[in-house]
Design a protein that fits this description.
Mean pLDDT: 83
Number of helices: 5
Low-confidence stretches: 15-20
Distance between the termini: 7 Å
Strand order of the largest sheet: 1-3-2
Shape: elongated
Number of strands: 3
Radius of gyration: 17 Å
Largest sheet: 3 strands, antiparallel
Order of helices and strands: EHHHHHEE
Length: 133
């Protein structure tokens, strides 16, 4: 079994880039593939590089959305803290959405090309792993 890996980006965005776009929370996992040219060659040989970039961007968006505190998430945390009632948290929903997204991407894009995207949760969001089948 061979793996192609896209590592997590631990760097903070440059000041100019942060001012132009939304600032990125450094505590939220972020996988950096800025352009199709940055896609690792073993992936680019089998799959359209733009599809890989779109997949990585969608995963980044799911992770970023889960880290945004909302009134609902604050209330769910308070309810769980004071009433000892487990709440369905936004983060758990994101994990479920991520599972569905990875399964869908594998079915439609990667498995027909002899690749499989592993769920990044299985490696603690340290990297994205593509298994060469």
């Amino acid at each position: 079994m061979r793996l192609v890996v896209i590592d997590r980006d631990y760097s903070l965005p440059a000041a100019a880039a942060a001012a132009a776009a939304q600032p990125r929370n450094p505590e939220v996992p972020f996988f950096a593939v800025a352009s199709p040219a940055a896609v690792p060659p073993p992936l680019a040989e089998r799959v359209d590089a733009a599809a890989v970039v779109a997949t990585v961007d969608a995963i980044n968006a799911l992770l970023a959305a889960a880290a945004v505190p909302t009134t609902q998430s604050v209330l769910a945390n308070l309810m769980e803290l004071f009433l000892f009632v487990p709440a369905n948290k936004a983060y758990n929903k994101m994990l479920s959405d991520l599972d569905s997204f990875v399964a869908d991407q594998n079915r439609t894009i990667y498995e027909p090309k002899g690749l499989r995207l592993r769920n990044p949760q299985s490696v603690a969001f340290i990297r994205l792993e593509f298994e060469v089948l």
